[in-house]
Amino acid sequence: MTDGAFFISMSSKAGEDIETFFLQYRANWDKFYLTQNKAKFFVFDSSADIDPDYSIDYCRMMNCSKYRTNLNLSINQININASKSQIVKNNNKNAPQIRAAIWKRIQEESRKTKNGLLTITYSELDSFFIGGRVKRGHFGGIKGLNTFSDLTKVFHIGNNRLSEFEYFMKMILLKPEILEELKQMDEEESRRYIEDAIAMKMGLYVDNELNELMYRSILADFEQNIFRVKIRDFRNTDHVEVFAYWDSNMFDRLNELIKERYEPLGVKFKCLGVPAEIKKIKVETRQSKNGEKTIPQRILTWIDKQPTGNEFRVAKILSELDITDKQFQKAKKNQVIADLFKNMSTGQKGIYRVNPP
Q1: Sign of the torsion formed by the C-alpha atoms of 87, 90, 96 and 98
Q2: With b meaning 16 or more CB within 10 Å and e meaning fewer, what string describes 240-274?
Q3: What's the predicted TM-score (pTM) here?
Q4: Where exactly are the structural domains of the chain?
Q5: 298 by DSSP, 3-state: which?
Q6: Architecture of domain 67-161+212-274 in this structure
Q7: What does the CA dihedral 325, 326, 329, 333 come to, rounded to 10 degrees?
Q8: Taking Cα atoms as reference points, which of 235, 258, 220 lies closest to residue 71?
Q9: Contact criterion met (CB below 8 Å) for 296 and 334
């Protein structure tokens, strides 16, 4: 339909009143042909300068940096592989334990807040991170919302990463000459070209230009997500804290881009490393060659069974686990075990106290 009207009949939420009206429709396509210079579009998007979608040749970016103000914001980056394959799909045997560890941290931080906090993650995890004063949003379904503008804490778990081919399609839009080149090839040649272009190694593109496009897209999405809370109000004086979960090694370039963008605005960015509870999960689930529990695993199991506040000597562990002091000292070279005993130290040599879980 190019011109006409819609007849609409709709009831109120209460179901009592019915409203009927005509909605006139008129096509105005002829007034918006960019190639004929008939119209200009002004897009107000705070992340446009970092989003590669705006790098198209007919987009003119206006410099608005003078309007930026300092942000009372800190970003804590936690080094966990938070990809879908690791924390959503249960084909990773540690996924339930990792989710439980993250959820425990969310609850701890939520209790410190006045109004609760916001979690932003994959839609598939909605049913896992639920309860208390925890509000939920998921990738792709939160941009532009003002619903959470009274909150001061955000847990950003994972990244809204698209498929390998989708970033290649973005590249084609930015570089039409690639498409023209593909048109000159036969089917087999074009297939090989695309396979080579999107080739991956260790979870990243072999082509660094595609990696950069991907990182910038993820950063733009990250900014849109975290600006759903109080930090979106530039008059805000409350401190806003973000906890961002992703693999620090794979996304080291993303961390660099975040620091480059926000540190000049007074934002504190800190890498917190791998949480102790995640390190513990890795130790507990490690498979030994003979299929039996390793000594670090046996030590962890023994301590977990002790009541909180219970004091003990190393000799008791050696006796009950039937291990030698040499084996115990070797086990303490494991960072998880070393940190555990450091935290349980009473200040008296050889005497330790079990802390609350």
Answers
A1: negative
A2: bbbbbbbbbeebebbbebbeebbeeeebebeeeee
A3: 0.78
A4: 3-66, 67-161+212-274, 168-210, 286-353
A5: helix
A6: 3-Layer(aba) Sandwich (3.40)
A7: -160
A8: 235
A9: yes
Q: Nearest Cα to 225, choosing from 147, 138, 114?
A: 138
Residues 159, 162: Cα–Cα separation, whole Å? 9
What's the rounded Cα separation, in Å, for the pair 158 and 264?
Answer: 25
CA separation for the pair 77, 207 (Å, rounded):
26
**How many CA atoms lie less than 13 Å away from 154 in the CB half-sphere?**
32
Quote the CA–CA distance of 99 and 2 in Å, as a whole number. 51
In 1-136, alpha helices (H):
84-87, 95-111
The Cβ of residue 228 has, within 10 Å, a number of other Cβ atoms equal to: 22
Q: What is the pLDDT of residue 271?
A: 93
The gap from C-alpha 246 to its chain's centroid, in whole angstroms, comes to 6
Question: What average pLDDT does the segment 170-194 reach?
Answer: 90
Q: What is the DSSP letter of 163?
A: -
CA distance 306 to 173: 61
Residue 85 pLDDT > 90, yes or no? no
**pLDDT score, position 236:** 85
Can you read off the two tokens belonging to residue 191? Answer: 């297939």
CA distance 226 to 240: 10
How far apart CA 244 and CA 157 sit, in angstroms, is 6
- State which H helix or E strand residue 226 sits in: helix 208-226
Residue spans of beta strands (DSSP E) within the chain: 3-11, 18-26, 73-79, 117-121, 134-138, 153-157, 200-201, 204-205, 240-246, 268-273, 311-313, 351-353
Percent of the chain with pLDDT over 90: 37
Do the strands 153-157 and 117-121 form a parallel or antiparallel pair, or are they unpaired? parallel
